[in-house]
């Protein structure tokens, strides 16, 4: 392995340059204006694999294309499927970025750009690690399949269908995904649980036009007032979500899990400082880590109604809209919750208001067994690359495809995040530590070795 | 009077053309970009008075200028002060206008433009009526003073100060204001009561940036969730505003007033159709007219937070903002309510949220005595011009200066609205019926005669 490690050292600048090339493509999957950029990003990745001698395919979908690649066949060796995504979140608001989101900039040991850590940078660690094996050893110690999608930030609809319809082609011994964060600086982690999500668009429509709030106020139901009432009714003052049956299928945290989480070095004071708030709030009876990782949530993601400009406009707005989402924990069923929500909202809707609820996307939460051989192999690779054993954590976010892979392929999923919590994913000034980028590549190269050992 | 009436007939097209000239000036007082247009509109009005031989002045203020004009002195005759405003509401959203808001267009007997009825069209009726007297009779039968402001839609701050500091200059026997609506088509009204208003901007700020709702949701207080909770807490399910002491100073409707309102020909079915809603809601225990005219309200005028674009963005927004206002009824004190509101909001504000409440403007409600000689004179003038006696109504909207005039000058205020409820004031496609415009000019010309009669 020492010659592979030397190769990785020598290639560091080249790897960063290649990552920058990909980051310059504004592949924002949610915004139709970027359709061409989506295709450019997919082509870039396909060509990258082809240069390594992999068989490749850009697979069209009804949305954005999938990129699929396979390494040259190694007999009597396990097969690993690597998943990643080349799409990114919208970069708005642009004026809050210190350097432009699609002009990657090195600053203070980080690379700043939309997608730096989520997920272009992390995804490429598993590409560069394969290249190192091929360049240094002439071959990989195992078989690699890559499935890189362009719809992760908008619900992975095409990928989910593709995985379900291509079980044989995607057959593998485990799936590797790097699309998350370490536990903290210098503390890598293996994530064994993810929250799910159910995301909704709610639009309330009242009068056929904006009305003068003096002439009509007090008689015509105000859609913005109705929206505030409905959104507030979804959660109580103890942080408990009020959708009927919402908690019915939640598996309670075990005492062992709560102890393990409590033992993790989590500095709440630092957490507050990092976010810039003077206090926290959440579901009563749970610690901050438990609330982040293992309890469901309700967050309003956007609000829009009436006049939002300068000064005062005395309108009774014709409509009001909210985007909101529940983070779900393993065993909660998004479909069942969606039905209960719909019934609850209909009952809350006041006279003179038309209510429209659209479900954007949903995915259930996932738990991975902690005692599997692949998790042990990943722990060894990480300890060798980072010089420190990983901790075992859960993750508050959702990776919609993880449950799809788990269900369709029936294998372990290795969730190995190389990022940090303060990487500003989904926010202005997204960044990725260059040290972590290079350690991630090294851990990935070692992972191929560990997973190929017969001991597993 | 018959020669004045003939003159008005002959001048109809000319009056409309002049109104169109003024409507083409986009004098939006709330938007700093229109500062130059504000000055153009003020100059247009000043020159209009000068052409009639009035003494005029454009009075600079810290905001938009006031226009003041006086007719040539008539000895031993009463003095009437006419108030109006040349500023208009913002025209957004532009795409909902059938014809552009600042290109006045005649359609179906109406003139469509921002400001057509609120208040440029109505204000000019009292200018053209004076011109008729001067052109036909060589002089007015009484003394007219005009005070036309440019800040009505943003709280009339400069005018309020000017009136209080210029009581002698503005001394008069009554004030005439046309800035409202008739009771309905073919049913003119004299308005004896107005609601007041208190308008607020509420901004809740949480984390120092938009956060990933998966990584942080459930622990960091979401400003949009907090906003929904706070806004919902301001009113209960019976439509009762929850600010402590809010109703303490409300004068209950008298039984006589309730009977009078109930006797008015109000078609609730038509009201629903006009607005395009299937039902109404409001404070329990009151009729629709009582809710519109004589009961206080709480309306959210604008909401803004997080991601409002296409698709789903899983952010926990850094801030959330609302514009909201109370319509107040006579005897409620906006300052007292503002203080109680501030205390209530501070108590509702959750951990990790900074709350900022700005008061945009406020004005108390007003009631005018119904048995005064000036109201009788106005009733005669209206009956002669419209062929129908006016009904006596209250108005749900606010004219911030009415209470200022009432307090500072101690005289009756004649509120003579020539518009209609469906004129789309403050909405796209604002319009003014041309028949009402011309009847308004005629009623105004007759009003000068009625008010000059010694009988009063």
Structure, described:
- The structure is a homodimer of 456-residue chains.
- Chain A is α+β, with helices and mostly antiparallel strands and 456 residues long.
- The first copy, chain A, has two domains: 2-194 and 365-452, Zn peptidases (Aminopeptidase); 196-250 and 296-363, Alpha-Beta Plaits (2-Layer Sandwich).
- Chain A contains 14 helices and 18 strands.
- In chain A, the strands form five sheets. Chain A has a six-stranded mixed β-sheet with strand order 1-2-6-3-7-17, sandwiched between helices. A four-stranded antiparallel β-sheet of chain A has the order 11-13-9-14. The first copy, chain A, has a three-stranded antiparallel β-sheet with strand order 4-5-18.
- In chain A, a hairpin with a 6-residue loop joins strand 1 and strand 2 (66-70).
- In chain A, helix 1 (2-10) crosses helix 4, helix 1 (2-10) runs antiparallel to helix 14 (434-452) and helix 5 (157-165) runs parallel beside helix 13 (400-409).
- The mean pLDDT of chain A is 95.
- At the A-B interface, strand 9, strand 10, helix 6, helix 7 and helix 10 of A face strand 9, strand 10, helix 6, helix 7 and helix 10 of B.
- Strand 11 of chain A pairs antiparallel with strand 11 of chain B.
